[in-house]
């Protein structure tokens, strides 16, 4: 799938301004002790077809959620990361560059989470399920969720006030249960594969990607697409997935393009971004 210069960037869930903002902050702000002028952020996002109104609204919402801190210098407002935002972005960085998309190091261990919540806690039950899915868990059967490897869900349980309602166990499959059956029952591997195929259709091309104006725009959209993918991927053991699992090729494409975009994107960003050094 190719797009001509001047075409509008194709829409997908990952092109939401907030998703793009997380990628921008992770690439250009995380670990640098700087704040960036909001007007220069608007200039960067204009390259992706995001309006000034959408950028300002996104920055405001993220500040209200405790993810951004505002800093004033003269008449200009700069935005920097809070410690909460740094934790969120660092988690994303690890998933992209360290954990990767293919789980070749699984040791056979599973984390099991069991719970039974009354209807009076229906909203909390929904929140718990959402958090478990985000953490890589699949729904095995009524009240039981599983994830490959060792997962620490203590913070989620404590935050939701569910210590007395949730049981967490470390386990291994035993006869007559087969690991392959656990994977097929708890996880929709076809849907996971479809997301990787969509990524490849979008990015595994021989010409300029997506008709975007420059490598800065392409870099941010690429990182956003990839981060959304790996955050939705439960990181299932490779030995229980098809040999042609699309995540393998998709990760190769991501890393190749990320390297290609890195230098020209940073050079361009340096001409656009107005940064304010923060005191340690």
Automatic annotation (TrEMBL):
Pfam families membership: PaaX, PaaX_C, PaaX_M
Ranges of residues in domain Transcriptional repressor PaaX-like N-terminal: 16-84
InterPro entries with a match to the protein in the record: PaaX-like_central (IPR048846), PaaX-like_N (IPR012906), PaaX_C (IPR013225), PaaX_trns_reg (IPR011965), WH-like_DNA-bd_sf (IPR036388), WH_DNA-bd_sf (IPR036390)
Ranges for domain Transcriptional repressor PaaX-like C-terminal: 187-268
Residue intervals of the Transcriptional repressor PaaX-like central Cas2-like domain: 104-183
Protein name: PaaX family transcriptional regulator C-terminal domain-containing protein
Source organism per UniProt: Nonomuraea insulae
């Amino acid at each position: 799938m190719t797009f001509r210069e001047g075409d509008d960037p194709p829409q997908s869930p990952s092109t939401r301004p907030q998703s793009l903002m997380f990628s921008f902050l992770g690439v250009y702000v995380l670990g640098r002790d700087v704040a960036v002028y909001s007007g220069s952020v608007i200039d960067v996002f204009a390259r992706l077809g995001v309006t000034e109104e959408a950028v300002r609204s996104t920055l405001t919402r993220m500040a209200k959620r405790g993810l951004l801190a505002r800093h004033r210098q003269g008449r200009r407002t700069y935005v920097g990361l809070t410690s909460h935002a740094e934790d969120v972005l660092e988690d994303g960085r690890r998933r992209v560059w360290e954990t990767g998309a293919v789980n070749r190091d699984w040791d056979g261990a599973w984390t099991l989470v069991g719970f039974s919540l009354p209807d009076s806690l229906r909203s909390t039950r929904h929140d718990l399920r959402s958090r478990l899915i985000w953490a890589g868990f699949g729904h095995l059967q009524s009240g039981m969720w599983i994830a490959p490897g060792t997962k620490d869900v203590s913070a989620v349980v404590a935050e939701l006030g569910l210590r007395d309602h949730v049981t967490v166990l470390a386990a291994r499959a035993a006869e007559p249960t087969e690991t392959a059956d656990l994977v097929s029952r708890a996880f929709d591997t076809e849907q996971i594969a479809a997301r990787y195929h969509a990524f490849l259709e979008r990015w595994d091309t021989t010409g300029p990607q997506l008709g975007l104006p420059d490598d800065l725009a392409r870099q941010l959209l690429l990182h956003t697409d990839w981060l959304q993918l790996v955050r939705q991927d439960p990181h299932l053991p490779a030995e229980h997935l098809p040999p042609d699992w699309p995540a393998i090729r998709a990760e190769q494409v991501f890393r190749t393009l990320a390297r290609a975009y890195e230098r020209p994107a940073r050079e361009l960003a340096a001409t656009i971004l107005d940064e304010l050094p923060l005191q340690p």
